[in-house]
Write a structure and sequence with these properties.
With 385 residues, the chain is of the alpha/beta class. It is built from 14 helices and twelve strands. The chain binds pyridoxal-5'-phosphate. The site of pyridoxal-5'-phosphate (PLP) has 16 residues, from α3 and α4.
Length: 385
């Protein structure tokens, strides 16, 4: 069982980083639930010394995700936020970062309420407009931080064009690829330098683990991130790494169904008289539909829509029976959330309005159930409006 160069994506998902356990032949990498490793003699060990520094299950998780994203190496973290925080510690006090303006609420909170106190500076722009990125770059700008599609408005950034613009000024490009997953888009292939994942979402895919990963392509980033992971210590545990490894084996088949179900529901909602507006990159009405077709493989599992008023949104959310009201996304079960009071509650109201998150907006994370059952549930809840 060895992966040949040029193996295709689904084969990589199932096999990359995983070899049968050398002591037993177990086909699945075990959960190495250990904090330390016995050394043969002073100065002689098997490459494993202490659990924060190395763990075989985490190592398999990292090799698997690095291969999926076509990176040189990946590093596992305790959560998506820990992964983002590790990337920001590549920077020095006084450095400036240009950020997608409606980035994940937790990212905005980390940047504004934690990292600003360490003299990092952030400017938020509409990164779907390359001219806005270029205009925001200063002599101290060291990083462009992109999220595409964005949460929850599903706006896209052209990763290739944005990377070209940033690189012309020597600016490193980091992409939070959580919403798309590497099945749908691979930012390193499009010119980005670093990829961040909350593995909590599509990579794990079963709503039973919290974790994060950073994928790097350049040797200097690989070396520094390895150091940071051990020095700061926000590592993913072996049990969570194992759950994600189980999840990534089925990522391609899950994503195909997420994509297909989401497109059906987006079209259904767009044609429904009680729905004011639908945001989905797969609809011809999406302003960046052409970019979505170029940059993405399928259009992802998230569908956002507006209902006309907060009252109507509340009626819908409380009327759903199969679809669960919950934060998070990317699991096999369909979830719905209310960004203004849930994921984006930490974003000030005036800023929420500016980045296009009205109070009547709801976001579906479309699961892999039978799509007719999802549509029927939405239909009965919309009937109550
Ligand atoms: C969930 C999420 C994060 C944060 O990940 P955690 O695992 O919850 O820490 C970051 N970015 C995006 C786009 C997310 O959806």
């Amino acid at each position: 069982m060895r992966l040949r160069d040029g193996a295709r994506f689904s084969t990589i998902c199932i096999h990359a980083g995983q070899v049968p356990d050398p002591s037993t032949g177990a086909i699945i990498t075990p959960i190495y639930q250990t904090s330390t490793y016995v050394q043969d003699a002073l100065g002689q060990h098997k490459g494993y010394e202490y659990g924060r520094t190395q763990n075989p299950t985490r190592g398999a998780f990292e090799a698997n995700i690095a291969a999926m994203e076509h990176g040189t190496a990946a590093f596992g973290f305790a959560s998506g936020m820990a992964a983002t925080n590790a990337v920001m510690t590549l920077l020095d006090a006084g450095d400036h970062v240009v950020v997608t303006d409606n980035t994940y609420g937790g990212t905005y909170r980390l940047f504004e309420q934690v990292l600003r106190r360490f003299q990092l500076e952030f400017t938020y722009v509409d990164t779907s407009r390359i001219d806005e990125i270029t205009a925001a770059i200063r002599p101290t700008t060291r990083m462009l931080f992109i999220e595409t599609p964005t949460n929850p408005t599903l706006q896209l950034t052209d990763i290739s064009a944005a990377s070209d613009a940033a690189h012309r000024s020597g600016v490193v490009v980091a992409v939070d690829n959580t919403f798309a997953s590497p099945y749908v888009q691979r930012p390193l292939d499009l010119g980005a330098d670093l990829v961040i994942h909350s593995t909590t979402k599509f990579l794990n895919g079963h709503s039973d683990s919290v974790g994060g990963a950073v994928v790097a392509r350049h040797a200097d980033h690989v070396e520094r991130l390895r150091f940071i992971q051990n020095a700061a210590g926000a590592i993913i545990g072996p049990m969570d790494a194992w759950l994600v490894l189980r999840g990534t084996k089925t990522l391609p088949v899950r994503m195909e169904r997420h994509n297909a179900n989401a497109l059906v529901l987006a079209e259904y909602l767009a044609s429904h008289p009680k729905v004011a507006r639908v945001h989905y990159p797969g609809l011809a009405s999406h302003p960046q539909h052409d970019l979505a077709r170029r940059q993405m493989r399928g259009f992802g599992g998230l569908v956002t829509f507006e209902l006309g008023s907060l009252d109507r949104a509340r009626t819908l959310l409380n009327g759903l029976q199969l679809v669960a009201l919950a934060e998070s996304l990317g699991g096999v079960e369909t979830l719905i959330s209310h960004p203004a009071t849930m994921t984006h509650a930490s974003v000030p109201p005036d800023r929420r309005v500016r980045i296009g998150i009205p109070d009547d907006m709801v976001r579906l994370s479309v699961g892999i159930e039978d799509v007719e059952d999802l549509r029927d549930d939405l239909a009965q809840a919309l009937d109550r409006l």
